[in-house]
Amino acid sequence: MVEAIAYRYRTGIAWRDLPEVFGPWQTVWKWHRRMAGDGTWDRVHAVLLARADATGKLDWSISVDSTIARAHQHATNITRVTGGFVELQQSADRAA
User: Fold this and answer.
1) How far apart are CA 90 and CA 29, in angstroms?
2) Structural domain harbouring 13
3) pLDDT tens digit sequence for 27-55
4) Helices 2-11 & 25-37, crossing angle to 10 degrees?
5) Does any domain span residue 95?
6) Is 36 contained in some domain?
C-alpha cells in the first residue's frame, strides 16, 4: 500500500489511474485516508525529517516564488452584469 501511495504522489496521477499491479485504487485510497486521519503520515514525516537533518542530508534553504497570475474578467465563472457602464467598458460619465 505504501508503495502504491508513493507512486501516486510521485507521478501526480488520479487515484483511479493507479496501475492494476497495486490492486483496487479504492483500497489504496482508503489506506491513505486512514493513515492520514490517524496521524501516521505526520509521524513518518517527522522521523524521516529528523534522520535527514541529523545526517546532514537536509538543506534548509528556502525559495519563495512571488509570481502573480491574473485572469481576464471573462475567464471567471461568475455571472456577469450586462448593460450599463460595466458592460460598455467606459467611464460612468460617458455611459450616462
Assistant:
1) 52
2) 1-90
3) 999 999 999 999 999 999 999 999 999 99
4) 100
5) no
6) yes
> Which grid coordinates are listed for 96?
450616462
Please tell me whether the overall predicted TM-score, pTM, comes out greater than 0.70 for this model: no
d(CA 11, CA 18): 10
Structural domains counted in the chain: 1
Q: Does some domain include residue 15?
A: yes
* pLDDT interval class at 78 (50, 70, 90): low
Instruction: Please report whether residue 7 resides in a domain.
Output: yes
CB atoms within 10 A of CB 18: 21
Which residues, 6 or more positions from 92, have their beta carbon under 8 angstroms from its beta carbon?
A: 85
